[in-house]
Design brief:
- The complex is a heterodimer of chains A (368) and B (312).
- Chain A has 368 residues and is α/β, with parallel strands linked by helices.
- Chain A has two domains: 2-40 and 169-362, no CATH class; 47-153, 3-Layer(aba) Sandwich (abc type-2 transporter like fold), CATH 3.40.1710.10.
- Helix content of chain A is 65%, strand content 7%.
- Chain A has helices at residues 2-17, 19-39, 58-69, 82-90, 104-111, 125-146, 171-201, 203-208, 214-243, 252-276, 280-298, 310-316, 320-333, 342-362, and strands at 47-53, 73-79, 96-100, 116-120.
- A four-stranded mixed sheet of chain A has the order 2-1-3-4, with helices on both faces.
- In chain A, helix 3 (58-69) links the parallel strand 1 (47-53) and strand 2.
- In chain A, helix 2 packs parallel to helix 9, helix 3 crosses helix 6 (125-146) and helix 7 runs parallel beside helix 10 (252-276).
- The longest helix of chain A is centred in the middle third of the chain and has 31 residues, at 171-201.
- Chain B is an alpha/beta fold and 312 residues long.
- Chain B folds into two domains: 3-227, P-loop containing nucleotide triphosphate hydrolases (Rossmann fold), CATH 3.40.50.300; 230-311, 2-Layer Sandwich (Alpha-Beta Plaits), CATH 3.30.70.
- Chain B has helices at residues 50-57, 79-85, 101-111, 120-130, 143-155, 173-188, 223-228, 242-251, 276-285, 300-311; strands at 10-21, 24-35, 39-43, 65-70, 73-74, 86-89, 161-165, 192-197, 208-213, 216-221, 233-238, 255-261, 264-269, 292-295.
- The two termini of chain B are 33 Å apart.
- Classes of the chains: A alpha/beta (368), B alpha/beta (312).
- Chain A binds chain B through residues 2-3, 6-7, 10, 13-14, 17-18, 201-203, 205-212, 365-368, and chain B through 55, 58-62, 79-80, 83-84, 86, 88, 90, 92-99, 103, 106-108, 110-113, 153-154.
């Protein structure tokens, strides 16, 4: 046991003396959360709107007021002709334009039909879709209030409700995603690099020609990154609860349990990579290309798994982050208990067991 | 099984060991025995197979064929036992550069289930020289100090057999000399030492040596015997045009071999074939000035050249 503790202490020395790396590892979750939370935000909030209403009347004013009052939009420009709209889009003063036809209110009252043209800046198609969706929603609501009795007209008003994330806050989606990514990065990538470094430096030779048991070598390599991952988990939780206002709806213990399980899977992945490679560069490339990209693209963090082509959807089954992110969403956002994520937990347990078995089998007691 | 396997006097036993890397034969039928408490040197140029042999004996790699044992334990079946009792210093400086001198030593002490205090006596002579720098990181040490630290780490658990793979490569001449002094002291403590080196001048400091080239042992004997077996006459020749001198000497049919050796050319001549004067005359005919020819005692390197020449 003394061997193990001494080895673990040595590993902490390695990490703590490499100040740059420690800073990067500890600040990475903070930077990612800030980036995703504020800079790369996809949520619709105070989007600038330009309105053009040639005939200012009761109905147009009401709709404009509603749009302005909603938290999604902010009426920034009142245009007088279509050139103004063009200019507003070009100068980035607006992302959405609402053009009311002439005599809007009158037409609505007398003909029972009036037109609003919605123009969105679709350089970001996802955002444009959201703008349209919200704007139509506001208009439909108004229309419904105007003629609440018109239910027999056959006109079906869809009422859309955003379950669990009524404001469609993207934080609800990316917090689990960032968790899934950071853990893989720290556990798998850093662990594999740390073990391969011993091979590259030649110290593995001395360690092998010693009574040190291989399992001790593995455990001590893993220990510091396990601690770092737990610290990062805590950082992300604190940031998301207090800065991004994403509450932990479900049980924290369940969330922690699932996260520890995921850390275990990620560590065993790192271990496997380290047994397959003999240079730090190779370990970095394999964990970078082989882990980061699938985690980002196939885990449902950016693209929903449900929308993927069948082949990619099949592949995503092998990405641990996919199951973890799903479990975190279920527990943290939906607030369901651990019983709702049994499938995710089962898959992760299976993955971890298989990976650990393979890497322990493959861990060489000799150089070749 | 060989008799020497059960002989407690044999520290290292090696029998017909061969190893291939792909198509390249790294070791060819290597057999030798090292007695307990002996300094045994493996002498040969880079790429001769020294490191491969060390790795087989330290259980790091498996031989393709042959038997080897250390302290009576088989390198394949009893590898764990061997790892408990040997000390190994690989060719490259293999300590943790970002740990201090003291931390490195402490770490290796615990790895081998011991403490610095327990075996301090053994490493004292070596460690005392680097102790003033014990708070310094190993990466910031000079070559000689790194080597002393590496040796201290390899010795900290009082190994019965010490494997030193090119311990003096890249080390200054003064430290090299000191280092060999330390090895002599360790031998007095009963530690068997297998050491490899590309420096022929270090060979005479070993009890016995094996000359190795292209994965084959050329000869195993004491340095004195190897030098003694040098049957030919050896001269050191010099002239104004050394390059032409070597060419002309090699063209002389009576000269057995000639090699550039420091600032002279070592010429071997079979007994009774040629005299200094007749060689001088031959060289003057070829237009050489300031010719100096001296009779010299052969060194290990001369023997090595001689032996490797006959191998080809």
């Amino acid at each position: 046991m003394k061997q193990l503790f001494s080895f673990i202490r040595k590993e902490f020395h390695h990490i703590l003396r490499d100040k740059t790396t420690v800073m990067i590892l500890l600040l990475m979750p903070v930077i990612q959360i800030v980036l995703f939370g504020f800079a790369l935000s996809q949520e619709v909030k105070d989007t600038k709107v330009v309105v053009l209403a040639n005939t200012s009347d009761d109905a147009t004013r009401r709709i404009i007021d509603r749009v302005d009052a909603s938290e999604y939009f902010d009426v920034a420009v009142v245009a007088h002709n279509s050139n103004d709209i063009d200019a507003a889009f070009r100068d980035g003063k607006a992302k959405l334009a609402m053009v009311f036809e002439d005599h809007f209110s009158e037409n609505l009252k007398h003909i029972g039909k009036a037109h609003i043209q919605l123009i969105a800046d679709a350089t970001d198609p996802n955002a444009a879709t959201s703008f349209m969706f919200y704007a139509s929603n506001i208009i439909t609501n108004y229309q419904q209030e105007l003629s609440p009795t018109q239910t027999n007209s056959g006109l079906i008003m869809p009422e859309v409700k955003m379950l669990y994330n009524p404001q469609m806050k993207s934080a609800f989606n990316f917090v689990p995603g960032v968790l899934g990514m950071i853990m893989i990065l720290i556990c798998a990538m850093m662990t594999s690099i740390a073990i391969v470094r011993e091979k590259e430096m030649g110290t593995m030779e001395i360690l092998l020609v010693s009574p040190m048991r291989p399992i001790y070598t593995i455990l001590s390599k893993i220990a510091p990154y396990f601690v770092l991952s737990v610290i990062n988990f805590a950082t992300i939780m604190l940031l998301s609860v207090f800065i991004l206002k994403v509450p932990i709806a479900g049980s924290f213990i369940s969330l922690l349990t699932v996260s520890l399980l995921y850390i275990f899977v990620a560590l065993s992945l790192g271990l496997l990579i380290s047994t397959l490679t003999s240079s730090q560069l190779a370990a970095m490339l394999i964990s970078g290309m082989g882990l980061m990209i699938p985690v980002m693209l196939l885990s449902g963090m950016i693209f929903p798994v449900e929308n993927m082509p069948a082949f990619l959807r099949f592949l995503s089954n092998f990405v641990p982050a996919r199951w973890y992110i799903d479990a975190v969403k279920t527990i943290m956002i939906k607030g369901l208990g651990i019983s709702s994520v049994l499938k995710d937990v089962g898959v992760l347990v299976l993955m971890g067991t298989v990976l650990v078995t393979i890497s322990l089998k493959k861990f060489k007691v000799r150089l070749e | 099984m060989n008799i020497s396997d059960n002989n407690p006097q044999t520290a290292i036993h090696c029998e017909s060991v061969s190893k291939k890397y792909g198509k390249i034969l790294a070791l060819k039928n290597i057999s030798f025995d090292v007695k307990q408490g002996e300094i045994f040197g493996i002498i040969g140029p880079d790429g001769a197979g020294k490191t491969t042999l060390f790795r087989i004996l330290t259980t790091l790699i498996l031989a393709d064929s042959g038997i080897a044992s250390v302290d009576g334990f088989d390198v394949v079946a009893d590898y764990k036992e061997i790892r408990n009792r040997v000390g190994y210093m690989p060719g490259r400086f293999s300590l943790y550069q970002d740990l201090t001198v003291e931390e490195n030593l402490e770490f290796f002490a615990t790895v081998f289930n011991t403490t610095i205090d327990e075996n301090y006596e053994l490493i004292k002579d070596i460690y005392i020289q680097i102790e003033p720098f014990k708070k310094r990181r190993a990466g910031k040490l000079s070559g000689g100090m790194k080597q002393k630290l590496a040796l201290s780490c390899a010795l900290i658990h009082k190994p019965s057999v010490l494997f030193l793979d090119e311990p003096t490569t890249g080390v200054d001449p003064v430290s090299r000399k000191e280092f060999w002094g330390m090895l002599q002291k360790l031998r007095e403590q009963g530690i068997t030492i297998l050491v490899s080196t590309p420096y022929m001048d270090e060979a005479s400091l070993c009890d016995r040596i094996a000359l190795i080239q292209n994965g084959q042992f050329l000869r195993i004997d004491t340095p004195e015997n190897i030098v003694g077996q040098f049957a030919d006459i050896l001269w050191a020749a010099k002239s104004d045009n050394m390059h032409k001198l070597l060419e002309d000497l090699r063209n002389d049919e009576q000269v057995k071999s000639s090699f550039a050796f420091g600032n002279s050319i070592h010429v071997t001549v079979e007994n009774g074939q040629l005299t200094v004067d007749s060689l001088k005359k031959y060289l003057i005919e070829r237009g050489h000035n300031n010719i100096e020819i001296q009779s010299i005692e052969p060194t290990i390197e001369d023997c090595f050249m001689e032996l490797s020449n006959t191998q080809i």
